[in-house]
Amino acid sequence: MKNFTFKINENNYGVKIVSHEDNVIELEVNGTSYSVKMKEEVKTIKTPTLVRKPSIKSIEPINVKSTASVEKIIAPIPGVIMSIHVKVGDTIKVGDVVLVLEAMKMENSITSEKSGVVSAIHVAVGQQVLQSEVMIELE
After folding, report:
1. Is residue 99 within 8 Å of 135, Cβ to Cβ?
2. Residue ranges of domains in the chain
3. Which residues fall within 8 angstroms of residue 125, CB to CB, at 6 or more apart?
4. Predicted confidence (pLDDT) at residue 65 exceeds the cutoff of 70
C-alpha cells in the first residue's frame, strides 16, 4: 500500500504497510512482517453535504385595489416563510403578527408597524426571501 522511511537514532527503517482492515495493520519493517492492533478503530470524518430544497418561484401579487398610500412590510433578514397569518382584505392593527419567518433555525414573528387593510401578499409558505424584500402591502 504505502512505503515510509523513518530515521530513529541515526538508524534508517523502511516501513511498508501491507494491509489495513478495521483496527489491524499488517506491515513490514526492513523486511520483517508485523501485525499491529490499534487500541481504537480509526474514525473517518465525513464532510457534511448541505442539501436544500429548490426555492419556490415567487408568486404574482394579488392586488385588490391600488392607492397612493401603500405601506410595505419588508423582510428584516433573509430566511424562509414558515406561515402567513393574514390574507388579502384582512384588516390589521399595529403589532399584529402577519407572518413567521425562519432565519438561522430561529422562528421570527413579523408584526405590522402600521394599521391597514392587506392589499397584496408577495410571498408563499416555503418561499425563500432576501433582506429588504417586500412581503406584504397594506393600504
Report:
1. yes
2. 2-37, 71-138
3. 81, 82, 83, 84
4. no
Q: What is 71-138's CATH number, 2.40.50.100, 2.60.40.10, 1.10.10.10, 2.40.160.10?
A: 2.40.50.100
Residues 6+ apart with CB under 8 A from 89: 64, 117, 118
Q: Is the pTM of this model over 0.85?
A: no
**The predicted structure's pLDDT at residue 20:** 83
Mean residue pLDDT across the chain:
84
Using DSSP, state whether 4 is helix, strand or coil: strand
**Cα separation of 111 and 137, whole Å?**
13
Lookup: cell for 95: 403589532
The identity of residue 131, as a single letter, is Q
CA distances from 100 to 7, 84, 114 (A): 64, 7, 17
